[in-house]
Amino acid sequence: MILRPLKHILLSLSIPEFETWLLCFKQTDKKPNRRRNLFEEAKKLDILVKDKCGEPYMVPNTAFDVGMLDLTHPDTAAWFKQVLQEMVDDGVKGWMADFGEGLPLDVTLYSGEDPISAHNRYPELWAQINREFMEEWKSARAGKEREDPEEALVFFMRAGFRDSPKWGMLFWEGDQMVSWQANDGIKSSVVGLLSSGISGYAFNHSDIGGYCAVNLPFIKYHRSEELLMRWMELNAFTTVFRTHEGNKPSCNSQFYSNHKTLSHFARCAKLYKAWYFYRTQLVKEAAQKGLPVCRHLFIHYPNDRNVHSLSYHQFLIGTEILVVPVLDKGKKNVKAYFPEGETCSWQHIWSGKLFKEHGSEAWVEAPVGYPPVFIKAGSTVGETFVDNLRNFGIL
Fold this sequence. Notes:
Distance between the termini: 40 Å
CATH topology of the largest domain: TIM Barrel
């Protein structure tokens, strides 16, 4: 387990005290747990997936091998929930339920089912066990004392299949490169955000700044300060606002690197906080109707052919906020498209300028710290959002 302070990272959710990295893998004794050797416990209980010889199937994972929990075994859930309970008793309020997508296709499972078909079901079971623990923990506390939001629990995960949103609480998009790339960088995080949203994953987000850095003699990907700051601006308008140091922290600019990055982080956290009231509405709407918080424009403007050509370029928050993130290095302005079919104007939150021509494009200035964001003129949601920005001193 890796614990990192998280109170300021998931700002306004008011839930986790710690982010805990939790795997469906059980590591061998390269880094034994100080209290318990979970690998040996799981091996003794015979709840690890097996190879064709009946031995624990060892999966290479970076610098060490791991065994995978057999989530089809009837004893696995009870044992794993006991591990979760121990974490919660130690003060953990939230965790990253990582992996889940890597079940090998030649394992032997307790259930006897074909591992090829079980491969897609595995992340659903992984989400279900974590969610069941949440519900059981909540039920055990019912009636004992007045509900305290600080005592809530949350987990987020990256693996998924058809029924994963039924069990998962939050999702994130895995490990993007620390780059401006469209295929696996900041642009791809927007593509993933919007495509997953229309696939049932209403509460998704990415690591601020990306995750994968490369530091080889001829290939280097290091997170620049500019990329980090633009990613902060982007994620201030997703369901979760969460940083990550990345796989090579020393190669990456961090939110705590200097006064400039820390101040920008605080500014974007206020941006995120300013639409908390609307996010709460959209989360409820997602639970009732399945609509994602962050939406591709064609969901609300299906007859506008121009929005069909948009990919990572811009997106809606609900119906009242339009975000046009800066996703290219060195750019200080972006092209915004205002869809057809509106009866009101879009208002730029920083300048107050109104854009009345629907079905048209306009270049908008976007210095660092002022991501192009628009609200529907006269919208109660938009006005409240702008009022909050003023109250936070950033408008």
